[in-house]
Amino acid sequence: MADETKSLARREFLRRGLAGTAGLCAAAAAGAAMRGASAQSAMVWQIDPHLCIQCGQCMTHCVLEPSAVKCVHTYAMCGYCKLCFGYFQPGAAALTSSAENQMCPTGAIRRTFIEAPYYEYSIDEALCTGCGKCVKGCNTFGNGSLHLQILRDLCVDCNECAIARSCPADAIRRVPAGQAYLMKSSHGPAPAPAAKTPTDA
Amino acid sequence: MRDAALQMRSPGGRDRIPPARRILSVFRAAVSMLVLAVLLPATEAAAVEQRFPQPDFKKGHVQPVYQPPAAEAPWRTWADIGLLAGALGLAAHLALVRRSRRGLFLLAVGCLAWFGFWRKGCLCPVGSIQNVTLGLADPSYGIPLAVAAVFLLPLVFALLFGRVFCSSVCPLGAIQEMAIVRPLRLPRWLDRVLGLVPHAYLALAAAFAATGAGFWVCRYDPFVGLFRREGPAEMIVAGGVLLVIGTVVARPYCRFLCPYGVLLNWFSRLSRRHLTITPDECIQCRLCEASCPFEAIRGPEPGPVDRVAARRALAASLLMLPLFAAAGALAGRAAAPAIATVHPAVSLAAEIRAEDAAGTRDLTWATREFRASGETMDSLAARETVARRRLRTALAWAGGFLGLMIAIRLVALSRRSDRRDYIADRGECLGCGRCFAHCPREYVRRGVLDGPLLNP
What we know:
heterodimer; B: 3 domains
């Protein structure tokens, strides 16, 4: 009997010792994993607009449908062109807002007459699918004020971003939450959304 | 270039242009596009952002500033982590103190609704293994405190109270819990063999995460598509199939796939307290024997006939652990070249070589972008070599780990314990609480049956 009690006590001691070790190991692993530079803040997925090639995979590869990628507009870079290469199809029959003349397949770009010869273009994010057709037009022929970006209110912050994996230009990466959004006008870290000054430098 | 485009901004609204001029303007637009298309490739490198000048508004129009939508506030993540801790504590209370199957089930419904369908399944300790592994392997990648907390909380609770996370907090477990209709008993050998799959999955997922080959646990999460009600079709189908299988094989993902379950199993074996089938004492009535859909109830065993001989046999069989580990490591290393193609650098290099061999170009976006990026093949080959080398090491470790696990399972098969009661296997019990209602002692505790209270 005494032997059995001793054996039980020994087992219990061993178990507790192992449990303590396991707990310490897990904590040490998590602690060691926190050393890296990116541990300072939450990391969020963003498109580097200077690397983006508008291949259109953002539209189809995001786990969300429609994609969390939308076209955004840096007005400060826009030429307010009457013939906007992001708005009109190449070889459009007429420079009117008829659907067949528009580049955008969902008609998500609004064109507003400001004063001759300037027109302002704004994106209806609810309609935008992130296909990047307008961005390609604007970047190829215009000022490049339109670009694609992952919208923070839509993105579900997947642990492994499906569009980052499929992006052929490696334009999508994690940035510290404070550096989002990566806007076109700023090459380095963009101001935080709270600052809201994505103006041309 | 600029002139051509400026011409297009002919003064005056479109309405005032006579039809002939309108046709002309369209013609000019077409010409200007053509000219631009011809000229641009040459000037692309030097392309500045401002091809067209800033507008000079005469009537004082103020340019709007685009306001990107703000992200969810960080406190919401911490609120979710608080909820996770609260749910874990509540599950432990319901399983160990209240002994309430109904309570555990309702908590599972709540956690499925909140962590699964509402928060889209992305406060996920299962996936956090990969972040921790990458954080350990890559000095430039660190996990934020929130991820560390999500990784540690269920493990700490497993050390204290067993797998309360699996019982009713994990949305992946909860959705399968709801799907159980008529669980079959798997043959013991099949259960043991399938039980090795999570170990292999854990080892591979850790190897891939550590070497930058991607987060495979997240990529092949079968239920997140159901939680979001959107996602890759094949994964939604996989989730549906798992749920259908789950009607007869209880919780197939938890038992035969979940990599985090491996860790929880280990930690729960060492747990300080654990739920018990009987509230006080086992009377060996055998009524609970078949109540567990996960086959986690262990019955009495006679124990070894000759203790000394058994101990000697155990010591001898332990000698085979290093052998199995070494064999596994060699197998992992041997499989590395074939498995390495999952790494993006390796697959890109293979695509480029295949294109070169076939005399074609730009068959995929990736190869086209690689050629456009100006990176040399040597640089890509160097990246590939590094990736292959790191994967070889990681897969050798993974293979060694798996070999060790197989050996431990074999040793455990030959071990006879001298258990006298029916108990829940601390490692494999998912804490659902179904067995409570099968124990007559439970009815005495609740006062439904008359009887003496044993060891209250």
